[in-house]
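thread: overnight batch results

M.L. [08:02]
morning all. the overnight job finished for the chain we discussed friday. pasting input first so we're all looking at the same thing
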Amino acid sequence: MARLGRNHLVIALGSLLLMGGALLIIQAKALLSADQPVPALPRAIADKQATRPVAAIAGAQRRGPARKIAQNFIAPPQLDPSEIERVEPRPPLSDLGLAMPPETPMPDDWREILLYRPIATSSAIFESMGRTVVISGVQSVDPDKTCSLHDVASWPCGQPAKAQQAENLWTT
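M.L. [08:03]
and the structure it wrote out:
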């Protein structure tokens, strides 16, 4: 029975300490508030504190105190726009970020002609209405070309390339 009374006493004491800690935390907010001014040190203590000399920085300007723009955020004072100096941008780190040169515009006398019923003669050439059109920037593969892999396997690669081009002509 004595043990049960001792356990109740420990629980009650622990609860009191917990309540006291919670009250201290609540009071700490009022004691440590950032909005309250810091009290000045007593004259006797202030005189005894060592002061260190402030070195002047060459070219430094004296600015006003920082202004509070929001709770717990501090920003430097506003600058006069005439004090701001504009410098040239740095060059790009590589050519990847540069813009592509503009495309050559079509001549003013250019007339579009619709070509009907195109027939692929190779992978980069087709004929339509008596005209032969070669697609720029594409390497042509002859229809009778045979491709091989390390002289082990070979297959006719020109005919499928021509068929693919024919399919592209009809689907666009």
